[in-house]
Amino acid sequence: MAKKGGSKAMKRHAAPKTMWISPKEGKWAIKPEPGPYNKESSVPLGFVLRDLIKIGETAKEIKFILKRRKVKVNGKVRTSHKFPVGLFDIISIDGLEHDYKMVYDQKGRLIPEKIEKMQTIVKLSKVVKKTCVKGGKFQLTTNDGRNILTDDNSIKVHDTLQLELPEQKLLKVLKMKEGAKVYIIGGSHAGEQGIVKEILPGSERRPKMITVKAGAKEFQTPIEYAFVIGE
């Protein structure tokens, strides 16, 4: 009988560039399970806890901590060491006086950044798709796999939603426009922040671009690589 489904294991050389991992230190890596992100834009929770935050030395220790329901991602308890976490996800660990927010480093790898303990989880999610649904409402699909129903037709693709989790209450909409503060999530400028100076229209051969001013320098990047984080 033919094999069904994909492999449950992943070798280190096949790990996505978002993982801070060396193929020379071993053979196998934790493979993210299906979830809110695809493999190329996420890292498994067990990898973050063991290799980056280092609350345990082995996968067995990390699994023990998770099964005791000590870890929350965006306000929800997660017990799988393969659960995928992505950009701006908030990781809370019982017993620690601070939380962690996932961000990119200068090489496009996801790393945890230490932040103050959050009583209310507020997360930024980028709108990547917008569709009209029954009842005249609009369904907004975000980069982290959320679907938000709204009556507001002014919200566009590439705008950012400020959400209160886990209820997914919409607090604010950050518009993609000139003067917006953006965080670069792809390309050679991944991890940098800047101000949108100009939005350039795309064509059949060229994607829509933006000009970003970051300190004393300016650069252009596809609008898909820009994540609005402020005004």
Describe the structure.
With 231 residues, the chain is mainly β. It has 3 domains: 10-116, RNA-binding S4 domain (Structural Genomics Hypothetical 15.5 Kd Protein In mrcA-pckA Intergenic Region, Chain A, Roll); 121-174, Ribosomal protein S4, central domain (OB fold (Dihydrolipoamide Acetyltransferase, E2P)), CATH 2.40.50.740; 181-230, SH3 type barrels. The chain is built from 2 helices and 19 strands. The strands form 5 sheets. It has a 5-stranded antiparallel β-sheet with strand order 5-4-7-8-9, covered by helices on one side. Strands 12-11-10-13-14 form a 5-stranded antiparallel β-sheet, with no helix packed on it. It has a 5-stranded antiparallel β-sheet with strand order 18-17-16-15-19, with no helix packed on it. A hairpin with a 5-residue loop joins strand 10 and strand 11. It is globular. The mean pLDDT is 90.
Q: Which helices and strands occur, and which strands form pairs?
A:
Elements: E1 10-11, E2 28-29, E3 43-44, H1 45-53, H2 59-67, E4 71-73, E5 76-77, E6 84-85, E7 90-93, E8 98-104, E9 110-116, E10 121-132, E11 138-142, E12 147-150, E13 160-165, E14 169-174, E15 181-184, E16 193-200, E17 209-214, E18 217-222, E19 226-230
Antiparallel strand pairs: 1-2, 3-6, 4-5, 4-7, 7-8, 8-9, 10-11, 10-13, 11-12, 13-14, 15-16, 15-19, 16-17, 17-18
